[in-house]
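User: tokens in, sequence out, please.
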């Protein structure tokens, strides 16, 4: 497995240097090495994502035995140690000696022979002490404990502890580390019989689908190597979409013939479900800020055969006077901190910052001010984010009602990964007075 570990090492070094999106980076890596056996690709994915997801915890244990602070270690050595510790602690099918020997070998191969003994010593010590490794004291330093145990920056732990209390904060953090099945939704226009047939075809591949009780067209999928390879995907019978965004669109109560304006639409999941709801006599205009994002919307819309949807490049902070007063429904799924999807996009927690939240809140308000006039009087606005943060959610809704001509008709709703079995997601439906 030396080649697979070296592939992971190079990926981690790229991630650390370029601060790349980890999900895109691992996707590119797996595409590049598509010729490898499925077992090897699964190992690469697990080790790469695990080292990023558990980075704070891994660094805590390394730092407990290293005389050199983890941040001051050579990047290659630091990431070799993270890889070794992750295998020792979280990959039971990998013998400790294999993880250690391969790390030492890679250190030598990559020109760090003088530090190979250091790598060997740290990993052997952690291996021998793995049943006795200590977290920060839960009672004496609860925020440090949460940060290390769940590998989330301390400022996020502090924010959730203040807003929801210690027990709820820990429950959220624990849920974000859980491996969740993929959520898929079938076209809402399919009959129950058509969905049952599609489910049977998918399960014939060895996948396991479980119906979500909240919506008739929503299922979770397990034991699937590639969702896009399942029967029905290319034909547009189903899409990958979390229950949270489906619930938000359902709350908007889109009617046949409605004109729906989606201001920040990529990758297009909400727009496409909205297009199904408004029917052939309705239409959806999906906007986003770049050609790349609009191309993604169009690609998904074409596959799902959303013929009543058009998409364009348009900055949501600007105002299009031609669309004023035209929309029956307005979707504002605004840019946010993404704290509700830390379990899916593992790099978010390392790139987010308290200062960044302030900038995002200002951007969100700018988008609200630029977009609300697209609604007709009596039209409905869906304000949503994929975060768990009152600052970006409830506070913004309160401001909308206070400063603009709106009243709340549904919500606000904060979905939690520990309670609702979905992404951390917020939505509220408001009506233009």
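Assistant: Sequence out:
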């Amino acid at each position: 497995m030396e080649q697979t570990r070296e592939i992971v090492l190079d990926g981690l070094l790229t991630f650390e240097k370029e601060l790349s999106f980890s999900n895109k980076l691992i996707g590119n890596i797996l595409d590049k090495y598509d010729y490898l056996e499925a077992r090897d690709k699964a190992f690469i994915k697990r080790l790469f994502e695990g080292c990023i997801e558990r980075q704070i915890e891994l660094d805590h244990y390394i730092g407990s035995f290293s005389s050199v602070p983890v941040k001051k270690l050579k990047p290659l050595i630091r990431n070799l140690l993270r890889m070794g510790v992750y295998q020792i602690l979280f990959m039971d099918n990998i013998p400790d000696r294999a993880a250690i020997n391969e790390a030492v070998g890679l250190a030598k191969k990559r020109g760090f022979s003088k530090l190979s003994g250091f790598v060997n010593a740290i990993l052997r010590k952690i291996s021998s002490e793995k049943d006795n490794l200590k977290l920060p004291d839960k009672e004496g330093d609860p925020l440090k404990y949460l940060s290390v145990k769940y590998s989330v920056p301390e400022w996020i732990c502090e924010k959730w502890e203040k807003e929801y209390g210690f027990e709820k904060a820990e429950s959220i953090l624990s849920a974000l580390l859980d491996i969740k099945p993929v959520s898929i939704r079938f076209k809402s226009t399919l009959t129950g019989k058509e969905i049952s047939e599609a489910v049977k075809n998918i399960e014939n591949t060895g996948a396991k689908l479980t119906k979500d009780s909240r919506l008739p067209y929503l299922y979770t999928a397990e034991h699937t190597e590639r969702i896009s390879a399942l029967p029905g995907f290319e034909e547009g019978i189903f899409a990958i979409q979390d229950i949270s965004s489906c619930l938000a669109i359902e709350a908007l109560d889109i009617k046949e013939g409605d004109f729906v304006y989606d201001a920040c639409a990529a990758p297009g999941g909400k727009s496409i479900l909205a297009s199904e709801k408004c029917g052939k006599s309705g239409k959806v205009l999906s906007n986003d800020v770049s050609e790349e994002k609009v191309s993604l919307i169009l690609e998904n819309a074409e596959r799902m055969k959303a013929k009543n949807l058009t998409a364009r490049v348009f900055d949501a902070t600007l105002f299009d006077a031609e669309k004023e007063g035209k929309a029956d429904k307005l979707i504002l799924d605004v840019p946010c901190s993404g704290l509700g999807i830390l379990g899916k996009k593992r790099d978010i927690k390392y790139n987010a910052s308290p200062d960044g939240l302030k900038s995002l809140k200002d951007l969100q308000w700018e988008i609200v001010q630029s977009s609300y006039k697209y609604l007709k009087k009596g039209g409905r606005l869906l304000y949503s984010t994929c975060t768990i943060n009152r600052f970006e959610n409830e506070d913004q809704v309160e401001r909308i009602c206070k400063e603009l001509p709106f009243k709340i008709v549904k919500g606000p709703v904060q979905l939690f990964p520990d309670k609702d079995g979905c992404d951390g997601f917020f939505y509220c439906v408001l009506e233009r007075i």
